[in-house]
Specification:
Blueprint lengths: L3 E3 L4 E3 L18 H13 L5 E8 L3 H13 L2 E14 L5 H6 L3 H17 L2 E6 L4 H16 L10 H12 L2 E8 L2 E11 L2 E9 L8 H15 L5 E3 L8 H4 L2 E11 L4 H21 L5
Parallel strand pairs: 2-3, 8-9
Antiparallel strand pairs: 1-2, 3-10, 4-9, 4-10, 5-6, 6-7, 7-8
């Protein structure tokens, strides 16, 4: 099944700001005939002038099958860049060996932060995985840190609390909180499922940089998922922030798939805007068209 939403312009993936990867849902991989049938349905759909799916994995088998089926149905199909995704294969790797291979600047930042916290005193680092009163307090701490950080307010204020509660019930949650003198100064939400640790949300309070709170907390959570959960991969999900390459070793791209119905005016106009924009960008960058 391919979850879709109708828009004024066409059909798009049922995804939002919080989604780091979109894909087909269900058990098993449908055969080519299923994708051909779906593409024909989309071709006839009242909102089928434009189909826009993102963010996608380039190597997803269902994506390649859908692209072929859409072209066969008559759609003009193209792809586009969404964001970079940094990740770390860690199967069989312990935290100590992992940390020893990190850049010296990162290792020194963690060590320096730990020493300063120890000298200051009054620090406490906790990792919460289950529902209950401690989790309620940790969720309040996360909200407090986020509100005092550089991050923009959440577009949907209830989303993160509900996600953390669901993740705690399912056993996915790893909510780390670093406190100093009784107040939280850093918090991170990681989700662990099917052997993979996803770094979902992180923030620290500005003004405490000398304690390297983000690095200290990330290191603690990294040790937990490697040595306790024994995950095979850690994933930073979305974005090419410079600090991520210090923690991760691999990068891949998440992209979008867009398809235009050339026999409908809306699809034809959207295709003209899309391909025209690509040509203008290529011209500005001095790249010859393919």
């Amino acid at each position: 099944m391919l979850p879709l939403a109708e828009t004024g312009d066409g059909l798009r993936s049922l995804s939002n700001y919080y989604c780091s990867l979109y894909g087909a849902v269900g058990h098993g991989m449908p055969g080519p005939d299923c994708w051909v049938a779906l593409a024909r349905q989309l071709w006839r759909h009242p909102h089928g002038a434009i189909l826009d799916l993102q963010p996608l994995a380039d190597d997803a088998g269902w994506r390649l099958a859908l692209e072929r089926a859409l072209r066969q149905a008559g759609y003009w199909v193209d792809g586009y860049f969404c964001f970079g995704n940094w990740y770390l294969p860690v199967a069989g790797v312990g935290f100590d060996a992992y940390l020893a291979a990190r850049p010296s600047a990162l290792r020194h930042s963690i060590e320096r932060g730990r020493r300063r916290l120890q000298r200051h005193g009054g620090d406490r680092l906790t990792i919460h995985t289950a529902a209950g009163a401690p989790l309620d307090a940790a969720m309040a701490a996360f909200d407090d840190v986020y509100g005092r950080s550089w991050k923009e307010p959440e577009p949907s204020p209830r989303f993160m609390p509900e996600l953390m509660l669901l993740a705690a019930r399912e056993g996915w949650l790893r909510l780390g909180v670093l406190e100093l003198d009784g107040r939280p100064i850093a918090a991170q939400v990681w989700l662990v499922q099917a052997g993979k640790a996803n770094i979902y949300k992180l923030a620290y309070v500005q003004g405490f940089e000398r304690f390297s709170p983000g690095s200290v907390l990330t290191a603690a959570l990294m040790a937990h998922v490697m040595d306790v959960d024994r995950v095979r991969e850690v994933d930073y999900l979305t974005g090419d922030d410079a600090y991520k390459r210090d923690w991760m070793t691999h990068r891949r791209e998440r992209t979008g798939l867009i398809a235009f119905h050339p026999l409908r005016l809306r699809g034809l106009l959207a295709a003209a805007r899309h391909y025209g924009g690509k040509l203008r960008r290529r011209h500005r960058e001095g790249v010859a068209p393919p």
